[in-house]
Amino acid sequence: MKKRFPECENTSSNKLIPLAENKSKLVIENPNQFRVCVIEVDGCAIKEGLRCDYLVIPDQQDIKKVIETYIELKGSKILHAIEQLEATIKKLSDDPAKQEKVCIIISTRCPLTTPEIQKFKLKFKKTYNAKLEVKNMTYTYRLS
Question: How high is the pLDDT of residue 3?
Fold first, then answer.
């Protein structure tokens, strides 16, 4: 990662890295205890405009393939979350089109899959080389 935000970064090699906001919670499982950089995007790395909550990047020395993980902890407005993720990728990704990414929206909304969300999943794969996941309330994501 070329862009650095030392005042917004926390490095962790814990087995579990919890991120929470309101009722939405994501736990990052880090079984190999890689060094992981958690960047607080909202209000720190990006202070204005659309932005997601967190960007998680494994340390390149620990891992062969670096995957940027963009995280939005949301209430029910999934379409707004998608816009926030897109804006953040455009501003922070080393290579918005080619760098491999995972985008995770934690939502309190049900149902989580609609034809509209399916279209966005395809768009994210095609445009940003990103796997878009929409999950409910508390979700565990495993780093590999």
Answer: 64
pLDDT for 138: 84
9-41 per-residue burial string, b: 16 or more CB within 10 A, e: under 16: beebeeeebebebeebebebebeeeeebbbbbb
CB neighbours of 50 closer than 8 A, spacing ≥ 6?
Answer: 83, 84, 86, 87, 88
Q: Which H or E run contains 108?
A: none
The dihedral through the CA atoms of 78, 128, 133, 141 has a sign that is negative
pLDDT at 76: 84
Select the more confidently predicted residue: 59 or 41: 41
Q: Which of 32, 39, 40 is nearest to 13 (CA)?
A: 32
Instruction: Give the CA angle between residues 97, 11, 142 to the nearest 5°.
Output: 60
Q: What does each C-alpha distance from 71 to 61, 63, 65, 87 come to in angstroms?
A: 23, 20, 19, 12
How many of the other CB atoms lie within 10 Å of CB of 53? 24
